[in-house]
Amino acid sequence: MRRIDRISSQGNSLAVTWADGGRSTWPAVWLRDQCRCAKCRHPSGQRLFEIGDLPARPEISAVTLIDGALRLEWRDGHVSTFDSGWLADHDLSEAARAARARQPRLWGKEIGNHLPEGDWPSIARDPAAELRWLEAYHTFGFGLLRNVPVEPGQVAEVGDHLGFVRTTNYGKLFDVISVPDPNNLANTALGLGVHSDNPYRDPTPGVQLLHCLESDAPGGDTLLVDGFAAAEQLREEAPQHFAMLVKVPASFRFADKDADLSTRTPLISVDDEGRVTAVHFNNRSFAGIDVAEELVEPWYEAYRAFAAILKRPEREVIFRLGPGDLVVMQNERALHGRTAFDPNKGRRRLQGCYVDKDGMESRMRVLRRKLNGAAAKGAAE
Questions:
Q1: Tens digits of per-residue pLDDT, 269-318?
Q2: Cα(262)–Cα(234) distance, integer angstroms
Q3: What is the DSSP secondary-structure string of 90-148?
Q4: Degrees to nearest 5, angle at CA 252 with 250 and 255
């Protein structure tokens, strides 16, 4: 835990100099809104006040350091206390915010022999093993589970363990198998270029699970491409194309006799710091762009450049799913596809489902909290 060395306040801000020489500052309005006292927070952690209840420009009248915690007295008589560890965890400096941001590990073909994977029976019974797998999954944007029972419906069981299965017009789960007169090219034997699933939905499914039940047919190998790595490569090679795909939304649509789904979203999404947060790429469901005429040709030039990067061999990870293998993919990052297969020489059957991304993120945080709490308790005893 960082130790506070000196404190200073200008009334509308607070500054802390740490024993390691670092310095952190917080605006007073931010600190007042973050007050943890019983008057401001319910035991659940939720706020007991509305933003309009607070002074528009709160002022700190006095600051005292007591046993490693800061006691702030406000001009209106309110008192707030902040532990030094909490303040360190909420440092607003650029370096601290960057350190808190999730740092995905970008990848390409080179990880083919070192895929993030885990044994499902072990993960299902051992929270520590599950947390290790979840952390690898979040780092790479996908993960493999081995030895999942080869039984129909197991993909939804896994999905509900890791998060919450999302029901769509395809049902709670769906089969990926070659059928006559399909409503989706996934249910043919054709090869499929890498893509994000269901970009025509709002919101797009955050996570896709695919469980292999049969794989006797020649072909049908799984392709994965790190959409974040491809987007960063586009930014490096052609920043004007990257900016175009961030700025101008594409339209996606799926329609059959029971559904008509459509939305507009950029192919590449970024956060307020410019970090890539999502990639939506699906040639089969792309429905064009609805933009000013002068943007059309530059957008298509950028679209083609991005598509070419996604098809580079060094970007592709190729592997074969066998019965009992299940791949879990962040749908807005790990773009997936397959090679063609021959249904006349064997069967290929996968079952899939969708899980909301935040459910899996919650699962990881809860497991981490429980395991860290158990470790701390054990050390204290």
A1: 999 999 999 999 999 999 999 999 999 999 999 999 999 999 999 999 99
A2: 27
A3: T--SHHHHHHHS-------GGGTTS--EEEHHHHHH-HHHHHHHHHHHHHHSEEEEE--
A4: 160
